[in-house]
Each structure stands twice: as C-alpha cells, then as structure tokens.
Amino acid sequence: MSEFDAGFAELDALGLRRRRRVVDSPCAPELVVDGRPVLAFCSNDYLGLANDPALVAAAQEGARLYGVGSGASPLINGHMTPHAALERRLAEFTGMERALLFSTGYMANLGIVPALAGREDAIFCDRLNHASLIDAARLSRAELNIYPHLDLAALERELASSKARRKLVITESVFSMDGDLAPLSDLLVLAERHGAWLLVDDAHGFGLLGPQGRGAAAHFGLASLRLIYMGTLGKAAGAAGAFVAATQNAIEWILQKARTYIFSTGEPALIAHTLLKSIDLIEQGNERRRHLAGLNALLHSSIKFKRWQLLPSETAIHPLLIGENAETMDVASRLFARGIWVPGIRPPTVPAGTARLRITLSAAHTEAHVARLAETLMELE
Q: Can you tell me whether residue 365 is helix, strand or coil?
C-alpha cells in the first residue's frame, strides 16, 4: 500500500480529487477533448485571441527571427529586443512609467510581493484573493492581515492600527471565482490615506476593462505613485506571461529584488514578439468586447433556476453556485456527457459549501453556444 493511498481515499470521499483531460485542438469554444468534440465554457481566453491567425503568424515570425528559447535569466542574456519593446508598449498601454515582464502571473506575484514587503512590514489581503497572492504574502514573512471580502471598513481599521514600517494592500481587480469587481478607487484612497502601497492583480481585467481594454486601473481612472499594477498575458491577451507596471523606481526595485525574475529563464522572445501583435488587437478590440458583453447579458436573461444560483457578474466569469461537492461534480459530469465542458470548482479554491460551476464566456462564443448551454443547464437542474 502506497503512503499516499489514504490521502487519495480521503480526497475521493470528499469529492476533491482532481483530474486532467487531454485537449487535442487549439484553444477555442469547440474543442476535441479526450477524443470527443465538446463545447467549452472553461477558458480564460476572453477575447478569443489564443488561436487568432494574426497571433499565429506573429509567433511563426518570432520563431524565425529569435528561435525558440531565450537561453538564460533576463539579467544574463534572456532579455531580448522583443522583451524590451513589449515592456515599453505595456507601460504606454497601461499609462504607467515602466513595466517588467514575468513568465506567469503566479511567478509575478511570488516575485512582486516579497520584493515590496518583508519581516518588519504588513500585508493586507482580501480573503478571496487568488492563491498566488496568498502564497506570495506568506513567502514574504511580513505580518499577514486578511480582511473579509471587499470589507473596506475592516481594512481601514487594520490599516489604521498597524505600526508596520511598510504597508501593502493586495487585491484582485476581478475575483477569479466570483466574477465581482473590487472597488479599486476606494482601496486606493485608503492606501494613500494610511501610507500604504496598493497592488492590483488584474489577471481577469486586462484586455477587457477600461478604454480599449487598458485594464482595471484605466477603468477606474487610477493614477498614483503608490499603485502597483499586475496583468497577465495568457488570458485575454491570448498568449503567455505577465507583467507588472508602476513608477520607474518601483519597477527598478522589483527588478533588483524579485527572485522569480532574477532566477528564472526569460520568456521566449517569440512569445514577446507575438504579444506585441496581441496588444494591437486588444487596443482595436472594441467589437470583441461589445460582443462578449452581449453574451454575458444573454446568459443571465436565458437562465431561470429553482435551486441553483447564477451569481450576478459584470464580467466574463459567471459562477453557478450549487453548494455541495458531489452534486457539483455530478452536474459537471452530466454536462460533459452531453458535449458541454464546464469545470466544477471545489474547496480549497472556494469556501466549503460553495462549490460551483465556473462558466466563462469568450468573444469567440456565439449566441447559439450560449443558448445551448442555458437550455442544457435548465434541463439538468
């Protein structure tokens, strides 16, 4: 008997064991999964760019020009012409002084937070923040204060009572499992009032929110020397990687101190070359965003449940709250049997008793796709 068997049995009993499926087609609403065609509502490719011909062509050109690998850390020889150009483009696009690239959003947060806060400092973290922010806060060894979700009064009390050398408030802009928006303007006011930094993880807002998809900071009209903005490039941007943008000095400090930047091989230059085209498409993507907004509204107007609850959302993330793990995974399984793939989300990703289907829509979906999903869900309730 393996030493892991008891743990596997416990995961199975609680309905918490995870499994992978094998996708044998490009990222799109209609996929081939485990050898069968399915209609998917599980991707974060919100603008439908992951398989866009223009990005595929840019990637091919990037591979011809720069090869496949970067060879080393950006601080050795892994910082190439496309990386430098993309950092300048991202800074300009988000309205910040400077930007710095990372290989993933998780790696970005794990680098940024410990670079900004340490043993004598305090971090203030929304309870529903992504695991990368929570892990980063723990890694920093700063005092960790977790405030109730979007509870600004509780946050202000904690900030006011803190005697820490440096204070850092960390939040998602769009919460990845609930689809709700953080009140970033109010958070920035609190941060400035109490001499704190505000780190905004805009993984699910970059490319969608703000004028021309410039992100949550632009959506709320934020401008502050105390704002640190992180965006990912593997969701609405359709490729891979992440970036942090802030003042010149803040980015220089993160470059000097972020271990996940210093000690990681640089992202392939072909990806940076591709992302330059992606930012152009995001900037020109108002029609994609309008179409996606229409699909979001259609989903909510089409579904009427007796027991389940489709949580309100202004974003492309639509949580369907079911409650218990077993029922949630059973519904996901029955959907898949009917050719529709929606992932079941369970603890610890969400609080106990709030298991859900996480429906995500893309500008690549059609109204017919959404209608099929709504009809099937109502049949299964």
A: coil
